[in-house]
Amino acid sequence: MSNDKQEINSADIIALANAQLPEHEDFIEGVKVEKVAAQHGVITFKGESFLDKDGLPTAKSMIAFNLYKWLCHHFSNKYTLID
Q1: How far apart are CA 81 and CA 63, in angstroms?
Q2: Buried b (16+ CB within 10 A) or exposed e, 15-54
Q3: What is the residue range of 77's domain?
Q4: Which Gene3D superfamilies does this one have (predicted)?
């Protein structure tokens, strides 16, 4: 990872992430980043998980997980969360 990362706050990176999501080829309606956190230089994104009424994953759950993971890789190399 580069040492030239730009500092960013939670609200701004959530807005950027939500703007980027529809550009991904696997995007599905309803995926939206609601929370962000950083640990050991890695930024993680959380949002809708598409669980069923029993709290179990659905077919959309893996797609959502992969989209949040994609954001993690995409933004962790560019930004440092400051709040």
Answers
A1: 25
A2: ebbbebbeeeeeeeeebebeebebeeeebbbebbebeeee
A3: 6-81
A4: Protein of unknown function (DUF2498) (3.30.300.360)
Enter the pTM of the model.
Answer: 0.89
Encode pLDDT of 7-40 as tens digits.
999 999 999 999 999 999 999 999 999 999 999 9
Tokens of 32: 């939206």
Is residue 3 over pLDDT 90? Answer: no
Check: CB of residue 36 under 8 Å from CB of residue 18: no
Helix H or strand E encompassing 83: none
8, amino acid identity: I
